[in-house]
Amino acid sequence: MVRGKTQMKRIENDTSRQVTFSKRRNGLLKKAFELSVLCDAEVALIIFSTRGKLYEFSSSSLSKTIEKYQKRAKDMGAKSAEISLQPSKGNTVDMEKKIEHFEVSRRRLLGEGLDPCSVEELQQTENQLERSLTKIRARKNHLIKEHIERLKAEERKLLEERRKLLEVIERGKGSTPASAEPPREKVRTETVDVETELFIGPPKR
């Protein structure tokens, strides 16, 4: 009977899954033991079943093997971080070339260092400037439009406040009686004749 190839997916049937787990677990533990004996290797194997049951094998002390692994993993992590922080020589050269290219492009955009440029390079620079100017103008027009909208909104707000203020003034005029200037009393002016005798000379006897 030809044995078919097992598909690598979860076994849905609980009984079949438990039988397969037991068989392969025992086979894995056996292989770990054989590897440690035949090759004089330090082997540690930990298995947890779906129910949380622990199965383990260690050619020496499991705790010492785990500590050794943790130390090695920590050293490897530190070494990898150190390597990633130190760019290789090739990366440094590439970075220098990119910086130099950006500097040349910046100078051309400023109108400097154009003598060694060909017609094609000058055309590319001109096209780049035109694209940049288009974006700059679009952004400027957008900001101007927003500013105008804000001014219009402020104008509408002031007009509304003015309208309300005028309504308040009109209501005030309607509720207060018109002020009338009290009549002035006629001042009677009487002419008083004053008799004055003016005598020049010695007094009469």
Automatic annotation (TrEMBL):
One GO CC annotation: nucleus
K-box domain location: 85-175
An example molecular function term from Gene Ontology annotations: RNA polymerase II transcription regulatory region sequence-specific DNA binding
UniProt keyword list: Coiled coil, DNA-binding, Nucleus, Transcription, Transcription regulation
PROSITE patterns reported in the protein's UniProt record: K_BOX, MADS_BOX_1, MADS_BOX_2
GO biological process, any: plant organ development
InterPro entries: MADS-box/MEF2_TF, MEF2-like_N, TF_Kbox, TF_MADSbox, TF_MADSbox_sf
Pfam family membership, one: K-box
Compartment annotation: Nucleus
Coiled-coil parts of chain: 119-171
This protein's record includes keyword Coiled coil: yes
Top-rank taxon: Eukaryota
Region (Disordered): 171-205
Domain MADS-box, first and last residues per copy: 1-61
SMART domains with a match to the protein in the record: MADS
Skewed-composition ranges (Basic and acidic residues): 182-191
Name assigned to this protein: Agamous-like MADS-box protein AGL19
Organism this protein belongs to: Rhodamnia argentea
Top-level taxonomy: Eukaryota, Viridiplantae, Streptophyta, Embryophyta, Tracheophyta
Gene: LOC115736973
